[in-house]
Design goal:
The structure holds three protein chains of three kinds. Chain A contains twelve helices and two strands, in the order αααααββααααααα. Chain A is mostly helical. Chain A has a single domain, classed as ABC transporter involved in vitamin B12 uptake, BtuC (Orthogonal Bundle). In chain A, strands 1-2 form a two-stranded antiparallel ribbon. The longest helix of chain A has 30 residues, at about 1-30. Chain A is globular and about 65 Å long. Chain B is α/β, with parallel strands linked by helices. Helices cover about 30% and strands about 25% of the residues of chain B. In chain B, β4 and β5 form a beta hairpin. In chain B, α3 packs parallel to α5 (about 145-155). The relative contact order of chain B is 0.18. By secondary structure, chain C is mostly helical. Chain C has a domain at about 15-245. In chain C, the strands form two sheets. In chain C, strands 1-4 form a two-stranded antiparallel ribbon. In chain C, strands 2-3 form a two-stranded antiparallel sheet. The chains are: A mainly alpha, B alpha/beta, C mainly alpha. Chains in contact: A-B, A-C.
C-alpha cells in the first residue's frame, strides 16, 4: 500500500518540479540559455510574498496576483539589462552571468532574512486532504499545485502555437536574424520570454513556500530538479518537461520509502540513468512548438 | 499608387563601406535605384553582393556612407524597423522558420509589414500548390518551394523595395524562369526590386540596370545592353584584358 | 631557401628570467613561516587553495571551453580521501598526492556521462554530479554522515609546526598546479587547447582531437581540485559534506578567474589575490562581500572580458608566462615585437 501511496504522492510532487522546469525549458528553447539563477529567483518570489502578505493583507493563496506580475517585469528587465549584453560575448558568458546572479540573490536573501526558513501559511487548504482510503490521502494543496503546473504548461504551449506573439517567439527561436527581417525585435522577444519564465518560476517559489518551506539557499536544489525534468523530457519539449517532472517526483517519493537519503538521491540517479540510455530525452524536439 | 511628381529615386546608396573586422567587404559603393525597376547586382563569390543586400536591409552597420529611402536617411535605422519603412529582404539560403508551418511562415510577413495589395489569397493565387500544403512544416518543402515561400513572406510585408539575394542558387532553371516571369506583374503593382544574381545572362535579361562588384568595389554599372559580354566578363573577374570570347554571356 | 624569414620564440625575453624570478619568489614564499606571523600565513593558505581552484577552473573553462559549476565534487573527493586515509592511520600530508590521483580517477567515469552534454547542460550536469556525491557521502556514517568528522592524526601536533606544514603543503600544491598548467600549455596538447579556445570548429577541422584534449583537461582539473580539497580538509581539521561539496567553492573560483582574466595563466593569479584582499577587507560585512564580488565579476564578464590582466596586457605586451609564440623580424636587433600573434 505504501508503494501506491508513494507513487501517487510522487505524481503530485512532480507538479512542483514541473513548475520549476517550465520557465527553464522556455528560456532554453528560445535563447539556448540556461538560467542558473532560476531556482534562486523562485525563492526570491517566495520571500517577496513573505514580505508583502502582512503589508497588503491579502490571503497567502492570492498573493500570486501581485508577485507574478512583479516577476514578469523583473524578468523582462533582467533580460534586457543583464542577460542580453552578455549574449554578445557568447552563451558561456551568459551562463556565468546567471551563476553570478544566483550567488548574489542567495547572499542578499541571507542578509535580509537570515538563514532561517520561512513558509506561507494558507490555512485549511494547506492542512486539509482528500481521504481516498484510510492509508491514502492527497492534500488539497498538492492537487492545486499539480493543476497549476499542468495549466502553466498548457497555457505556454497554447500561447506559443496559437497567438501572434507566440508565433514570433518561435520564429525568433528558429532564426533570430531572419526574424529581424520580418520586423521582429528579437531583444524584446527575448525579454518577453524571460518575463514569462520569471513569472512561472515565481509561481513555483510560492508553491514551494506553501508546500514546505524556503531558505535563502533552497534555490539550487530546485533548479537541479527543474533542469533534470527538462532533460528527461527532451530539450525544448514542454510536454516532455511535464512528464519529466512527474517521473522525478515519483522517483523521489518512492526513494523516500527506502530512506530519507535515498529519497534525495533517487531522482538524480534516474536522471543519470536516462542520460546514459537516452540522452536526447523522451520527447526530443529540435525547437519549440 | 504613387504620385508622379517624386523627385528622388526610391533608394540611394552613397559611398557605402562595410568592414568585417579587418576585412573590407564593401568599399565606397554608390548607386541609385529608380521606382518600379529591377536593379541587378552581379559579381563573383566574395564580391560583397550579399553584404550589400544585408546592409541595405540593416543587418550590417556601414563604417562610412549613407542609405536613403525616398530621400530619407535610414543608415542608422535597425533592421527590424526598416520593415515598416518598406524594405523586405529575401535572404540568401531562404531562411524560413523551420519549426513553423508554411502558412505560419507567410503570416510572419504581416507582423510589422505595411498595408498594401499583398494578401494571403493573392499569394495562394500566384502559387496554386501552396494552399494544400499550408499546414506542412516549411523545412519539408523542396528548395524551389521554399524560395517561393520566402519571396511570399517578404511580399506580404508589402514592401516598396524588395531585396532578393541569390534567387537562383540551388534552384532548377525552370523554377528560376517561372519566378522571374512573375516579376513583371510585381513591378506593375508599384514594387521595386534590387536583386543579386550570379547568372549574368539572367540578370541582363530581366534588369533595367546592372551593377558589378569585385572585391567590394564597383567595377561596372549601367544598362544591361551598354556593355559587351567581354567587358562584363572583365569587370566580373577583374581581368584587365579579356582575350576570349565567352559564349555563355 | 637561405633567406632568413625571422625567428619565432616563446617570448620577448628568455624563459631564463622567469626561472630566476620564479625561484627567488618560491624561496621567499617558502621562508615566510619563519618571517611573518601565523595569521598571515593562514591567509596565504586560503590564497593558495583559492589560486589552485581558480587555476584549475581557468584551464577547464578558459582553455577547454568546459564551464563546470560542479568542481566541488572533486574538492569533496580530495577531502574525503584524506579523511579516509587518516582514519586508517596514514599521515594526512602524505595523503595529498593520493587525493589528487583519486580526483582524476573519479573524473574518468564522470566524464563519460558529462561529455554527452554541452554548454549549459554540461554545466548543470556537473552540478548534479556534485550533489549526488554529497548525498552519497552523507549516507556513510563512518565518514561522519551529515554532521562531518574531524581529521585524526594531526590534533596532537604543535600548532605552530602544523600551521607551517600546512602552509608548505599548500605552497607545494599551488606550485604544482601552476607549473603543471604552464607545462600543459606549452605542450602539443596545450597548442591544441589554445586552438580550441580560439575557435573550436576550426581546431576540429585542422585535425585537433578536441574531445580527447578536453577530457585530459577535465581530468587535470579534477586532480587539482582534489588537491585543494585535501588542503581544505587539513587546514580545517574537519571534513563535512555540506562544506566541501558546497557550490560556494565554485563561486569563489569562477569569480577569481573572471576578475583576474579568463584564458591566461596570469589572470587567475591576479584574480585570486584580489578576491582574498576583498574577502579580508569586506569580512565584517558578512554575506555582502560575496554580493559585491559577484557583481564585480558579472560586470567584468559582460563588459571587460579579459579581466584585470586583459586590461593590463592590452596596454603592454608583457607576458609573465611564455606560453605563446612571438615572431621577430631578423632585421630588428632589439626585441621589439613585430607580430604578437599568440598561437
Amino acid at each position: 500500500m505504501s508503494w501506491i501511496n508513494a507513487l501517487i504522492q510522487g505524481i503530485f510532487l512532480g507538479g512542483l518540479f514541473v513548475l520549476f522546469a517550465a520557465g527553464l525549458s522556455l528560456l532554453f528553447g528560445v535563447m539556448e540559455v540556461i538560467n542558473l539563477a532560476h531556482g534562486d529567483i523562485a525563492v526570491a518570489g517566495g520571500y517577496l510574498a513573505v514580505v508583502l502578505i502582512p503589508i497588503l493583507h491579502i490571503p497567502a493563496i492570492w498573493i500570486f496576483i501581485v508577485v507574478v506580475p512583479v516577476f514578469v517585469v523583473i524578468g523582462y528587465l533582467v533580460q534586457r539589462l543583464l542577460f542580453q549584453p552578455s549574449l554578445k560575448s557568447g552563451s558561456l558568458t551568459t551562463l556565468l552571468v546567471t551563476f553570478g546572479l544566483s550567488v548574489i540573490i542567495e547572499n542578499l536573501l541571507l542578509e535580509g532574512f537570515s538563514a532561517n526558513s520561512h513558509s506561507l501559511s494558507i490555512g485549511r487548504l494547506g492542512s486539509g486532504a482528500f481521504r481516498i482510503t484510510s492509508q491514502l490521502s492527497i492534500s488539497y494543496l498538492s492537487v492545486v499545485i499539480l493543476f497549476v503546473a499542468i495549466a502553466t504548461i498548457v497555457l505556454i504551449q497554447l500561447g506559443l502555437s496559437r497567438t501572434k506573439t507566440g508565433r514570433i517567439i518561435r520564429a525568433v527561436a528558429d532564426d533570430r536574424e531572419a526574424a529581424q527581417l520580418i520586423g521582429a525585435d528579437y531583444k524584446h522577444v527575448f525579454g518577453i520570454a524571460a518575463g514569462v519564465a520569471f513569472g512561472t518560476v515565481a509561481l513555483a517559489g510560492l508553491a514551494l513556500s506553501m508546500y514546505s518551506q524556503i531558505t535563502p539557499s533552497a534555490g539550487p536544489t530546485y533548479l537541479i530538479y527543474g533542469f533534470e525534468a527538462v532533460v528527461i523530457g527532451g530539450l525544448g519539449s514542454l510536454w516532455g518537461t511535464l512528464a519529466g517532472g512527474i517521473v522525478l517526483g515519483v522517483a523521489a517519493t518512492i526513494g523516500l520509502v527506502a530512506s530519507a537519503n535515498f529519497g534525495a538521491l533517487a531522482p538524480h540517479l534516474v536522471f543519470l540513468a536516462i542520460l546514459a540510455i537516452r540522452p536526447q530525452g523522451f520527447f526530443p524536439k529540435k525547437a519549440l512548438a | 499608387m504613387m504620385s508622379g511628381d517624386r523627385v528622388r529615386p526610391l533608394l540611394e546608396v552613397e559611398d557605402l563601406t562595410v568592414n568585417y573586422g579587418q576585412l573590407t567587404a564593401l568599399d565606397g559603393v554608390s548607386f541609385t535605384v529608380e521606382e518600379s525597376s529591377i536593379f541587378a547586382v552581379i559579381g563573383a563569390n566574395g564580391a560583397g553582393k550579399s553584404t550589400l543586400m544585408r546592409t541595405v536591409a540593416g543587418l550590417h552597420k556601414p563604417v562610412r556612407g549613407r542609405i536613403l529611402l525616398e530621400g530619407i536617411d535610414i543608415t542608422s535605422v535597425p533592421a527590424h524597423l526598416r520593415v515598416e519603412k518598406g524594405i523586405a529582404l529575401v535572404p540568401e539560403g531562404r531562411r524560413l522558420f523551420s519549426s513553423l508551418s508554411v502558412e505560419e511562415n507567410l503570416l510572419t510577413g504581416f507582423y510589422r509589414g505595411r498595408k498594401g495589395p499583398w494578401t494571403l489569397s493573392r499569394i495562394y493565387e500566384m502559387f496554386p500548390w501552396m494552399p494544400s500544403r499550408r499546414t506542412q512544416r516549411a523545412s519539408l518543402l523542396s528548395g524551389g518551394e521554399q524560395q517561393a515561400v520566402a519571396i511570399s513572406r517578404a511580399l506580404l510585408a508589402n514592401p516598396k523595395l524588395l531585396l532578393i539575394d541569390e534567387l537562383s542558387l540551388g534552384l532548377a532553371p525552370i523554377v528560376v524562369r517561372s519566378i522571374y516571369s512573375s516579376f513583371s506583374s510585381l513591378l506593375e503593382s508599384g514594387l521595386t526590386i534590387l536583386l543579386v544574381e550570379q547568372d549574368v545572362s539572367q540578370a541582363r535579361s530581366i534588369a533595367s540596370h546592372i551593377h558589378c562588384l569585385l572585391e567590394g568595389r564597383t567595377t561596372l554599372f549601367g544598362g544591361p545592353r551598354d556593355f559587351s559580354a567581354a567587358e562584363i566578363e572583365a569587370a566580373y573577374f577583374g581581368i584587365a584584358e579579356p582575350n576570349l570570347e565567352l559564349g555563355t554571356l | 631557401m637561405s633567406r632568413n624569414l625571422g625567428t619565432v620564440s616563446r617570448s620577448q625575453y628568455s624563459g631564463y628570467y622567469l626561472g630566476v624570478v620564479g625561484s627567488v619568489a618560491v624561496v621567499v614564499l617558502a621562508a615566510l613561516p619563519y618571517l611573518v606571523a601565523q595569521g598571515f600565513t593562514n591567509i596565504l593558505i586560503n590564497l593558495f587553495i583559492l589560486l589552485t581552484l581558480a587555476n584549475m577552473w581557468n584551464v577547464l573553462a578558459g582553455y577547454g571551453g568546459l564551464v563546470s559549476v560542479g568542481q566541488q565534487a572533486f574538492i569533496g573527493v580530495g577531502a574525503y580521501t584524506v579523511l579516509l586515509m587518516a582514519q586508517h592511520g596514514v599521515e594526512p600530508f602524505l595523503a595529498i598526492p593520493v587525493a589528487m590521483v583519486m580526483g582524476a580517477v573519479f573524473a574518468v567515469p564522470v566524464s563519460w556521462f558529462l561529455f554527452r552534454l554541452t554548454g549549459g547542460y554540461f554545466a548543470i550536469a556537473t552540478w548534479v554530479v556534485a550533489v549526488i556525491a554529497g548525498i552519497v557521502i552523507t549516507g556513510v556514517p563512518s565518514l561522519g554522515g551529515g554532521t562531518g568528522a574531524s581529521l585524526p592524526g594531526l590534533h596532537l601536533m604543535n600548532s605552530v609546526l602544523l600551521g607551517a606544514l600546512t602552509y608548505w603543503a599548500s605552497l607545494a600544491v599551488v606550485l604544482a598546479s601552476l607549473v603543471g598548467v604552464y607545462l600543459l600549455l606549452r605542450s602539443r596538447l596545450g597548442l591544441a587547447l589554445t586552438a580550441v579556445r580560439d575557435n573550436e570548429i576550426g581546431a576540429r577541422s585542422v585535425g585537433v582531437k578536441v574531445t580527447r584534449a578536453k577530457r585530459v583537461v577535465y581530468l587535470i582539473s579534477a586532480s587539482g581540485c582534489a588537491g585543494a580539497g585535501a588542503l581544505i580538509a587539513i587546514s580545517q581539521l574537519n571534513v563535512q559534506a555540506a562544506n566541501v561539496f558546497n557550490i560556494q567553492w565554485t563561486a569563489y573560483m569562477i569569480f577569481a578567474v573572471l576578475i583576474g582574466g579568463i584564458g591566461s595563466i596570469e589572470g587567475p593569479i591576479i584574480g585570486a589575490v584580489v578576491f582574498i584582499v576583498l574577502q579580508q577587507s569586506l569580512a565584517r560585512f558578512n554575506a555582502w562581500y560575496l554580493v559585491i564580488v559577484g557583481a564585480v565579476a558579472m560586470i567584468i564578464a559582460i563588459w571587460a572580458r579579459g579581466g584585470i590582466w586583459g586590461i593590463w596586457a592590452n596596454r603592454s605586451s608583457t607576458k609573465l608566462f611564455p606560453v605563446g609564440y612571438f615572431l621577430r623580424k631578423p632585421s630588428e636587433k632589439k626585441s621589439s615585437v613585430l607580430a604578437k600573434t599568440e598561437y
